[in-house]
Amino acid sequence: MTKFADRMEHVSGSAIRELFKLLGDPEIISFGGGNPAKETFPVDMVMGICDDLLTQKGTVLLQYGATEGYGPYLDAYIDYVGKEKGIKADRSNVLAITGSMQGIDLICRAFINPGDAIMVESPTFLGALQTFNLAQAKLVPVSMDEEGVIIEELEEKIKLHRPKLYYCIPTFQNPTGRTLSLERRRRVAELAAKYDMVVIEDDPYCELRYRNEPLPCIKTFDDAGQVILLNSFSKTLSPGIRVGAALGAPEKIRKLTICKQSADTHTANITQAIAAEFMARGLMKPHIESILPGYNSKMNAMLDAIDEFFPKECQCTRPDGGLFIWGKMPDGVLTLPLFERAVKEYKVAFVPGEHFFCDPAIGRSTLRLNFSAEPIDRICKGIEMLGGLLKESL
Amino acid sequence: MTKFADRMEHVSGSAIRELFKLLGDPEIISFGGGNPAKETFPVDMVMGICDDLLTQKGTVLLQYGATEGYGPYLDAYIDYVGKEKGIKADRSNVLAITGSMQGIDLICRAFINPGDAIMVESPTFLGALQTFNLAQAKLVPVSMDEEGVIIEELEEKIKLHRPKLYYCIPTFQNPTGRTLSLERRRRVAELAAKYDMVVIEDDPYCELRYRNEPLPCIKTFDDAGQVILLNSFSKTLSPGIRVGAALGAPEKIRKLTICKQSADTHTANITQAIAAEFMARGLMKPHIESILPGYNSKMNAMLDAIDEFFPKECQCTRPDGGLFIWGKMPDGVLTLPLFERAVKEYKVAFVPGEHFFCDPAIGRSTLRLNFSAEPIDRICKGIEMLGGLLKESL
Q: Residue B24: is its pLDDT beyond 80?
């Protein structure tokens, strides 16, 4: 059989996506996914928008579009980030992407030769790790504390490895739920400028804030044009429409656009137009505000249940927003076998944390809990059962 | 500034896409694009389908989907290729893709290391050439005659270069409009098996047949599981929805699926669902039948006008379908400067053919004409003016 490319050798598909194919059983209480709650989807609004769009410009939407993006979508996004995030941009700064996963991938293509170093928070989003592995990059993890990545270690490792890219999720990070502090955001932008390193600021969760004040994006400190901000509508509007945006310096966006021509020509017009209308009609902010209380209640229910039922030895994060809580059991307690027991014996699922580390051995006693997918009664019941299992494992 | 990856060095974006940004002037008669005629888009049907889909399964469509594709889409496609093309497949053979461009890209990622050889018809689709260049492949062109690629030359060059991939558009090829003969289709499948070479059978135009009988896909001769068929709904339903399918042996589809996880997680559910419904409701065949007469009239109008107005020295293909006619002027007549004069002085556009060749020098006196985008009166007028310019150039 024809030999596959070298890059395929150490890649086996997303462990989580494989894992969760097994979880078809509706009885299973799942804290394992990262899906937004289905009750948050504004189906009726999307339906109305689709009707209007197809009536008014059906032939434009069904025809080929520009690789850069559908004009009204780019303009609505530029307006939105200007008002909501204080970022000034024009069309030369923006590329419409097929979800922010595509943004990560296009940046790898534009910048990474095999062997180039990419720095990542440890732990981090495993989809990004998989993309970086496919790009045959050398991954350099940087430790975090409760305020996010540790800047001294970041700079030290930058000096040592001279990375082309630093990938981070500064707000309500996946998987930890942690948020990078204001001062550290400023420092990341400084380091990017000082060491000629591109920062991928992946920011899909920032609008899901349930308490405390929003922090500015790293991009707002980016005088050197080294930060590429990735935004997604997956967590606010719908992940199934696969629409996001990359925002950065024009020469970088231009190269990403060239890569995107080869990747998928352009993102579907109709899905871009749905997101555009949602923003342009002023629906986005009220919609987000309408879904926050439900998520907040779920997070609080999970945190309360953790306090009540988890062993004290399991250290859990207390995020200000997002979709995830992160737990750390004492070293030596292995969460992968616990996952299997949890699913089979207790019908509760979580994600064993090791998948989120460059070196899984470091994360063998960690776990990620998602609180968005289940109703509150099942959250409490599931955490109680999981707590029992965790106590048993000590 | 952070250095871009080596693969970006010889890539400058699609020449045509750049060229046609200049053609905003509606006065210009354009034979340059490859867009389906906008009057063929079934806007009302799509609107009805969208309404029904969002009403019946809105939350499913707005949620994350499987990388493999939206189940009802995969099933409808499998049923469709079974009935229409006589290809037996199940879900393990199929991957939903974001347009067939993504299929070409994913196959490169799964198979191509820098320096690996890819064989292509000469000339061929320039989007594919760009993707192969980004993959840092060694491109090996194979000559064509009126029956498509010349098999003896193909085998000779396979022996010499041992390519991993052979990329071809066997039916109404872009840019030539030529169709690979039945016997040669069989031979391509044999060579793929004999020399352990994967064939990308890119087949977006085959349903746009205006005369003579359909030919079976190369895939139907593929006992060795070496052919990956790429289908697209861009030319039959809508290019703006960006939906296609890759069909091949399960172990190959599995690797493409892993690459797709990193590329865009999954294709938008709603656009897959639109295509699925279009097939499942039995709308596809009658819709295609309804658009063929219009395209046929346009092609005939262009061919008649060419007979009347083009110099005899310009040899043009006479396709049985598709969207393109290919012209060859005598060596020494350069079509790139003629393109500039045509646009500026005559307000007529075509594509200078050199962009479709691995070595542009070979194609300097060729041109591609698209007949789908303009109404018949403008086709006749445009060809008359272009004919005048071509005669002048001799």
A: no
Best of B106, B265, B370 to mutate (most A CBs within 10 Å, chain A): B265
A50 neighbourhood in chain B, CB within 8 Å: 47, 50-51, 54
Nearest CA in chain A to B235: A63
Average pLDDT over all residues of chain A: 95
The mean pLDDT of chain B is: 95
Partners of residue A98 in chain B, C-beta under 8 Å: 98, 264, 267-268
Please state the ipTM of this predicted complex. 0.96
Do A105 and A131 touch, CB atoms closer than 8 A?
yes
Residue (of B27, B34, B31, B33) closest to B345 by Cα position: B27
Contact B131, B153 (CB under 8 A): no
Mean pLDDT of all residues in A310-336 = 97
For chain B, state the CA radius of gyration. 21
- Residue B302 phi/psi, 5° resolution? -70, -45
Strand extents, DSSP E, chain B: 29-30, 94-97, 117-122, 138-145, 148-149, 165-168, 198-202, 227-232, 244-247, 315-316, 324-328, 348-349, 351-352, 366-370
Is residue B122's pLDDT more than 70? yes
B320–chain A nearest CA distance, Å: 24
pLDDT in tens, A91-129: 999 999 999 999 999 999 999 999 999 999 999 999 999
Strands, E assignment, B158-292:
165-168, 198-202, 227-232, 244-247
Domain boundaries, chain B: 6-42+286-393, 64-281
Averaged pLDDT for residues A154-176: 98
Name the band, by pLDDT with cuts 50, 70 and 90, for residue B22: low
Shortest CA distance from B97: residue in chain A: A264
pLDDT at A11: 78
Mutation target vs B (from A62, A91, A228; most B CBs, 10 A cutoff): A62
Is B51 close to A55, i.e. CB distance below 8 A?
no
Strand arrangement, sheet containing A198-202: A94-97, A244-247, A227-232, A198-202, A165-168, A117-122, A138-145, A148-149
Interface test with chain B among A20, A63, A255, by most B beta carbons within 10 Å: A63
In DSSP notation, A187-226 reads HHHHHHHHTT-EEEEE-SSTT-B-SS-----GGGG-TTS-
User: CA A80, A85, A87 angle in degrees (round to 5)?
Assistant: 85
* Per-residue confidence (pLDDT) for residue B26, from 0 to 100: 82
> Is the distance from CB of A334 to CB of A320 less than 8 angstroms?
no
Omega of the bond leading into A360 within 30 degrees of 0 (cis) = no
| CA pair distance A188, A197, nearest whole angstrom | 10
Instruction: Tell me which fold the domain A64-281 belongs to.
Output: Aspartate Aminotransferase; domain 2 (3.40.640)
Read off the pLDDT of residues B188-231 as tens digits, 9 standing for 90 and up: 999 999 999 999 999 999 999 999 999 999 999 999 999 999 99
Q: Comparing A6-42+286-393 with A64-281, is the CATH topology the same?
A: no
pLDDT the model gives residue A24: 66
Fold annotation for A6-42+286-393:
Aspartate Aminotransferase, domain 1 (3.90.1150)
